Amino acid sequence: MKLLPANNMRLLGHQIPARVVVNAINASGEKQTNKHRFDEESGVNMSFIRQHNRSHHQTLNEFISIAESKVGLVTNLYFVVDKNVDALALYFGEDPARCPFEQVIERLVKFVRVFRKAHEENCKQDEMEKKKAQKEFEWRFSNGVNRLNWKGRKM
């Protein structure tokens, strides 16, 4: 079994480096932006297009501005997640360069599941101890032991 770096993502059943995907999205966005700028600079042809298709042009401008900001946001989120996954791999004692993203997340999910189960068991244990202490208090109070020491003598 070959281990891939943590910066690879599983897309459509294939291992594709996420940086390649982000770069492709950026390149596509830049290509559309450059084409749009060329159309704006061409002057006469663009004015003719604007006369007949203003709503399409406005929609395209809105889409490009939103898409550019979203691509930047996704890129930033990817790098933050990548750093956090690498840090998590180190926490679990793995080499981030040899531990795939999926393996780190799988271990995190297992850890959280075990942690929650242990927390629930601790809460149940605490509840049982509280009930036991309450019963002991009620027994002592009902038998008058609260005024006597454990051997039955006055304090």
TrEMBL record:
Domain (FH2) ranges: 1-141
Record SUPFAM superfamilies: Formin homology 2 domain (FH2 domain) (SSF101447)
InterPro entries, sorted: FH2_Formin (IPR015425), FH2_Formin_sf (IPR042201), Formin_homology_domain (IPR051144)
Highest rank taxon of the organism: Eukaryota
PANTHER family (alphabetical): FORMIN-J (PTHR45733), FORMIN-LIKE PROTEIN 15A-RELATED (PTHR45733:SF10)
UniProt record similarity statement: Belongs to the formin-like family. Class-II subfamily.
Record protein name field: FH2 domain-containing protein
Source organism per UniProt: Lactuca saligna
